[in-house]
Amino acid sequence: MAELKKWYELPIGGVIDQPATALAYKTGTWRVMRPIWHEDKCTSCMMCWLHCPDNAIVVKDAKMKGMNYDYCKGCGVCARVCPVNAIDMEPETKFLEEAE
Ligand code: SF4
Ligand code: SF4
Asked: Is residue 56 within 8 Å of 37, Cβ to Cβ?
């Protein structure tokens, strides 16, 4: 059996060498489902804002204004918690096809 390397022989990985770099990472490209907001149904209750794990719900003057797709990873939590079904989840491929 091969001998395992010592901890100090392993390559260094996962180093965060600068603080507050999350804004630089546009994690929206990970998304396979896209939340679609229906403004006409929305009551600006802020349930989606409260639960979004990526802080991707855009709010202005205490009103829901949509999603920031640069950071939304498409988890669907917002659609799940919306009490008036103002958010639908659609496959991201649908929008790729529309853009072509
Ligand atoms: S949870 Fe639904 S109703 Fe409430 S702010 Fe979000 S989209 Fe609007
Ligand atoms: S799909 Fe997930 S990440 Fe995107 S806005 Fe909704 S809760 Fe936030």
From this structure: no
